Amino acid sequence: MRLNVRSLVLAMFILSALSACGGYKIRPDLTAEERLTLATRMFKNKDYQDAQVQFKLLVLNYPGANFVDEAQFYLAECHYEMKEYIVAADEYKRLQRLYPRSQYIDDAQFKIAMSDFKLSPKPSLDQKYTVSALENFQRFLEDFPTSELAPEAERRLKICRAKLAEKDFNAAELYRKLDDNYAALVYYNSVLERYYDTKFAHDALFWKAECLFELKRKDEAVQAFNELLAKYPKSKYRARISERLKEIESALGKAQEADGKTPLSKQTKP
Q1: How far apart are CA 152 and CA 133, in angstroms?
Q2: CB distance 39 to 54 below 8 Å
Q3: Whole-prediction pTM value?
Q4: pLDDT at residue number 254
Q5: Taking a C-beta distance cutoff of 8 angstroms, is the pair 108, 77 a contact?
Q6: Residue 233 phi/psi, 5° resolution?
Q7: Under DSSP, is residue 198 helix (H, G, I), strand (E, B) or coil?
């Protein structure tokens, strides 16, 4: 007779669960409510490894119980507290998918974003988790604008935006120092268009104008310099901008004078 695979996996999990919780006396005949109380106590005691085993047993054995969403949420919380952020995010998403009316839905969405946030590396590395965190914080704020977690979500979202802005700004700086002003402009514009509310926007606008000046796109440079002075009247670049504008004005004046002269070859002899 072939043994049911699901039953075998469940039996093996239960055996490992009983052996894993050596610090607690666990009766084999615990009711669901007693197991939930025990798992909650383990969680409060920061025994996350033991707690996640008990919450997992509850989720597997009582899928229709009125407390199963709570067990599912705290199962995810255990993984989060153990810094297993990828697994935690999957468990929070499982709660959203299976129990959309749960009281823990808003907390789960916030923690999905936080899991990505915790996985976000320094700006020089790939920022896929930062982008994901930003998107999930935005989703949280859209779905739960009055949540008590909203201020923290906004704070974390700003951190994500600043990190992405820093990555693009650093790329722009690298290209500028390599004298590739065209490539630098692409990244300076990215900072200005996508992360205009970060501290990098000020410097990005100045160096964008400088790149335009170096590329002899003087009209665009003047526009960028004037925009910077309008937005940042106390800019640290104010003196340098004044010099650049004088240079551009002088160059344009000389060009107009040159255009206004009649070539000697075409002048009429007296």
Answers
A1: 13
A2: yes
A3: 0.83
A4: 73
A5: no
A6: -60, -25
A7: coil
